[in-house]
Amino acid sequence: MKKIVIFLVLAALLTSASGLFAQNLMDNADYRKGMEYQNLSKQAFDEGDYDKSIEYSKLATDHFRKAREYAEMMRQRYIAHNLKNRAADRMKYADYINAEKNFPLEYTGAKAAYTAAEKAFSNEEYVVSGEGYRKVIDLLKDIKPVTPIPAEELAKADSLRETIAKYDLGPARPAEKARADAAYDGGKALVDKDNVRAKTLLTEAIKNYELVIDGAVGDMAAKQQAGMEAARKRADGVNAGILAPEEYGDGQKNQNFAEMQFRSKAYEDAWQSSEKSIAAFNRAYDRAKGEKLLPEYYTVRLIPERRDCFWRIAGYDFVYNDPWKWRVLYEANKHLLADPKNPGIIEPGMRFRIPSLAGEKRAGDWQPKK
Question: Which CATH fold would you assign to the domain 293-362?
């Protein structure tokens, strides 16, 4: 009976050993020790030393138990390690897509679970750590990238709307304005709900608002350009470029600025520059209209019945209206005479400069009335 019991023990040991071998734990110290005692037990049994065989079998059983526990621990570690890698990758992905902001509840829970799982893994609590890693994976399984709020498009659309409202440009292009407003309202309502669609609608709104502004500004620019040109021509009519050069120059400068700004779509600056130009030309006109511009040059004419001479030329109302001032005219032009010492010899076609007397403003050539 004792021999049968020992045989059954040996059979159990062999079954246990083969199971451990299936776990590929030949390098496990307890497994190797168990195999050693199993062989000793079998040898003692074959030699008839049954007590020794039982003793060896108990030692073998103990070592096989430890080996099995180690094998199970390694299996749990393997599972936990795989879950650890998956959880770590998911946490990295969550950080990449800014889940802390976009999925705060899931992210907070996952981070706490991951921290606890890491601690358990370090303490070789592989079953607990595996459960923690699974929780991380489960919490973050549905997160996905969130399209950011189309802040740039929203800001640009708001700026264009302010420009249109400020200058009342809507009536110039009512159809485009209506399309733009509809797209803007729809896009703004979807912000933070469907940012992809919101961006599309706001982009459409921007396009139509720009059409409104471009069309209206084209009309406005034409009106302002016509206004600047009319103011300039009015100033030219009183010779403001000569009689009021500072004001007239300021008008020209701002007219040039306005033209460039209209072309570059700097509409607000263009409007201000054009208004300054018109105002400057009007000031030039007001200053010049009360002043008289006299000719600076006179070309000697052939008048058979009354020949031109310095005396007669000085007496013309557009020269000095005083023949006694003939010497002023002579001194300024004697270098043109064939005999500079003889003021009486002048020829038709000679172009004399008329020096300005005090208070006079002169420019250009005298033209006889037709």
Answer: Membrane-bound Lytic Murein Transglycosylase D; Chain A (3.10.350)
